Sequence to fold (176 residues):
Amino acid sequence: MLTKSLLFGEAVLARACSVCATLLVVLTCLFAAMLSPLLGILIVGGIAWSCRNGGEYRNTHGSARWASIGDLIRAKCIFQTDGLVMGNFRSIYNMTMRTSLLVLFTYPLKRTREAVAIASQGVKNPQPIRLFLPDQYPHLSVYGPSGSGKSSAFVIPAAIEQRESMVILDAKGEIA
Fold:
């Protein structure tokens, strides 16, 4: 009982810290705008320009792009407990403040670690998020030149975390 209440308190505190950090930035901008109207106009103009562009790249050369965190959530590649571990994910897109706050306020308290990890993707040094290949894709093949770390970086960690039996073809005997 005590452990659950401590975990609940930790979850609430983690979210409160994230919300307070965002609030501090907003209040600092408002204070700077009150000190100088020109500074206020520049801040509002910068925010409007940022919202207009949305942080996404324009579709000048087609629509191909790297997966965003929303794409990975929809594909069930992150925040899973099963599947093959593919590595860690850090967003290359800047998350808007509105989206970060929406995540912090709408995710259930049981998933606070996920909510804070998603909300932190908009900051300078985001927390890495585990990237999984869902079980709906059961087969995988890894290619690379010799010495590129296929065994040590992918095969061995995936075999350690797998909770089911596996068949690994190892002709050289490096994994055993």
Q: What stands out?
A: The longest helix spans residues 2-35.
